[in-house]
Design goal:
The complex is a heterodimer of chains A (405) and B (168).
Chain A: H1 6-15, H2 25-47, H3 61-64, E1 67-68, H4 76-90, H5 94-99, E2 114-120, E3 124-132, E4 138-146, E5 155-159, E6 167-171, E7 181-187, E8 192-197, E9 200-202, E10 210-215, E11 221-228, E12 231-239, E13 256-264, E14 267-276, E15 279-286, E16 289-292, E17 304-305, E18 311-320, E19 329-338, E20 344-349, E21 354-356, E22 360-361, E23 369-374, E24 386-392, E25 398-403
Antiparallel strand pairs in A: 1-2, 2-3, 3-4, 4-5, 6-7, 7-10, 8-9, 8-11, 11-12, 13-14, 14-15, 15-16, 15-17, 18-19, 19-23, 20-21, 20-24, 22-23, 24-25
Chain B: H1 12-34, H2 37-53, H3 64-83, H4 102-114, H5 117-127, H6 133-140, H7 144-161, H8 163-166
Classes of the chains: A mainly beta (405), B mainly alpha (168).
Chain lengths: 405, 168
């Protein structure tokens, strides 16, 4: 038992009664943010040395890391990117949760978006915009701009991790970044960061805990090291996943739509295929925007390949509006390919309901069955979400079965 | 009261939870260390703001609450050192003349101010922070035995010097 003297307690209570101060958590958070802005102001002063001029020869790694701190409001397009994410999060359904947990998507204060830093890149510039999230994290968008192309560059977004890590890196290379390798990093206050590429070591400029770095197109591996004085606190070895050299992806114009459904009136979601030597390449589009399809459980490297299984599938979560000014709605689209062995495809839900998935038949090579299926909204609820995808041949025998989710 | 020993991730929600549960105790200890309630509260606010920023440093080797107590105590000590206050740093009563015992209380204050810093800190954490041996040990990163011995010594010093006050 801990020693306790009631008379000492009474005496202390008398000469220093309990304080009448009130807890103010909002003030604590505000002090935390003010401190970050103070650090940013210091970084701004340090960085205010003028922008680097783009040289005709390719930029070296060090030149690519020169930082300018922007002082301009975030464009509507950037803020809207955060807002759309908030909208989708608020409308998260069980099927979306099943496909990707909500913990990955905090609510972002889009109106507080501001520029943090920018770097010169091989073909233009990359700008990092950041906004605070309600759960204490920071979410950021990296915007690419091209010198020789007036079209709006791609936006790649992510958020810092929860709980925070001393070092984290985010590959923000875009499909449309034309082969460049762009990295965004977050480093805890008080730590130093170095990038090691081959025999070269570079210290990126850190602004409010963020840094950006672009690596040469032929770079294969970079090591990012965070240290506190002489102590290495964290180390990340990043290897660039390049498309398999076996398959050369066809140009966008070679893709042909094989199946299209309307997520909403005027909002088509389509599945496109292009034939490549000894392979087939898959892509999908939403509305008018063609998207190359590089990731997913479909198992095809770089969107192209030769796959042994009868069915390859994935679920794509989308948010789409019927009109530009209408509230976006979430959709979950099951799509994929099947071999000629597959005659029927069936989706089973957790509540036992079964539903046929239409197969579009279009002989284009290795696969000649395609499916794209928008999961009905009534099956977004817990207990009713998709559970199994089953493929049968002409005799009704099961040739493929896979558990979804 | 025990400082929870369960592991808690240093998330924003976890830090906020400790802040709200123990705010009054944090302020009272910080006020005792800095010599002023407003300054003590300020130190608590700044300590928690810094805890948010450096929460990745929390290694879960002790409880989150103990880690935050260390942050508050360190912050209060830094504030006092910068202000070059009297080493006692003991908050003045808001209405010292109204308690009817100004002279006696001044003696008690002086006695506390004369205690070694460690004894004073353990005393404040016991009576203002409402921590037990285990909680104080976790907060100050010392053994429970040392805490017990330190508290006992502080008690003895107070009793020797203030028999009139404590005998009431």
């Amino acid at each position: 038992m801990t020693e306790f003297d009631p008379s000492i307690k009474a005496a202390l209570d008398r000469i220093q009664p309990p304080a009448s101060a009130h807890a103010d958590w909002a003030d604590v958070v505000a002090r935390h943010r003010r401190r970050r802005m103070y650090v940013a102001a210091i970084a701004t002063a340090l960085a205010a040395g003028g922008a680097v001029a783009l040289a005709a020869p390719p930029l070296s790694l060090g030149e690519r890391l020169f930082v300018t701190v922007e002082d301009k409001p975030a464009p509507a397009r950037v803020k809207d990117h955060f807002r759309w994410g908030n909208e989708a999060r608020e409308q998260r359904s069980e099927v979306i949760e099943w496909n990707r947990p909500a913990s990955e998507l905090p609510h972002v204060r889009a109106e507080e978006t501001r520029a943090v830093l920018s770097i010169a890149t091989e073909r233009g510039k990359a700008i990092l915009w950041a906004a605070p999230a309600d759960d204490g994290r920071w979410c950021f968008i990296v915007q690419r701009t091209w010198e020789t192309d007036a079209a709006e560059g791609p936006l790649e977004s992510s958020c810092t991790s929860q709980p925070p890590r001393p070092l984290e890196t985010h590959d923000v290379s875009s499909v449309r970044s034309r082969g460049d390798w762009l990295l965004a990093g977050v480093i805890a206050e008080g730590l130093d960061v170095e990038l090691h590429l081959g025999g070269e070591t570079v210290t990126p400029r850190v602004v409010e805990g963020f840094f950006l770095a672009e690596f040469p197109a032929d770079a294969k591996m970079v090591e990012v090291v965070a240290s506190d004085g002489d102590e290495v606190v964290a180390r990340e070895r990043l290897e660039r996943a390049l498309p398999a050299p076996l398959f050369k992806r066809p140009p966008p114009e070679a893709y042909r739509p094989v199946a299209t459904i309307d997520l909403a009136p005027g909002v088509p979601f389509g599945f496109a295929v292009a034939a490549a030597p000894e392979a087939v390449c898959l892509g999908f589009f939403l509305g008018k925007e063609q998207r190359a399809f590089l990731r997913g459980r479909i198992g095809l490297q770089g969107g192209c390949g030769r796959a042994p299984a009868e069915v390859h599938w994935d679920v794509q979560e989308e948010v789409a509006s019927e009109r530009p000014d209408s509230r976006p709605q979430p959709f979950a689209v099951l799509y994929g390919v099947a071999t000629p062995a597959v005659e029927r495809l069936e989706l089973t839900y957790e509540d036992g309901v079964r539903q046929s998935v239409e197969l579009y038949r279009k002989p284009l090579g290795l696969f000649d069955r395609y499916f794209v299926f928008s999961i009905p909204k009534e099956h977004f609820e817990r207990g009713r979400v998709p559970s199994t995808l089953t493929a049968r041949d002409t005799n009704g025998a099961i040739v493929f079965a896979d558990r979804l989710g | 009261m025990n400082v929870p020993s369960r592991r808690t991730d240093a998330t924003l929600a976890g830090i906020e939870d400790v802040y709200r549960r123990k705010f009054a105790e944090f302020v009272r200890v910080a006020a005792a260390l800095t010599g002023d309630v407003d300054t003590g509260r300020d130190a608590v606010q700044d300590a928690f703001a810094e805890a948010i920023r450096k929460r990745w440093r929390y290694r879960a080797e002790g409880s989150l609450e103990a880690w935050l107590w260390r942050a508050v105590v360190n912050r209060a000590h830094n504030v006092r050192r910068r202000a070059r206050r009297h080493p006692a740093g003991f908050a003045r009563a808001e209405t010292p003349a109204l308690n009817g015992r100004p002279a006696v209380d001044a003696d008690l204050r002086a006695t506390i101010a004369a205690l070694p810093e460690r004894q004073r800190l353990v005393l404040f954490l016991r009576y203002f922070g409402d921590l037990d041996y285990r909680g104080i040990a976790a907060a100050l990163e010392m053994s429970e035995g040392t805490v017990g011995a330190t508290l006992h010594a502080a008690h003895a010093a107070l009793r020797r010097s203030n028999m009139e006050v404590l005998g009431d």
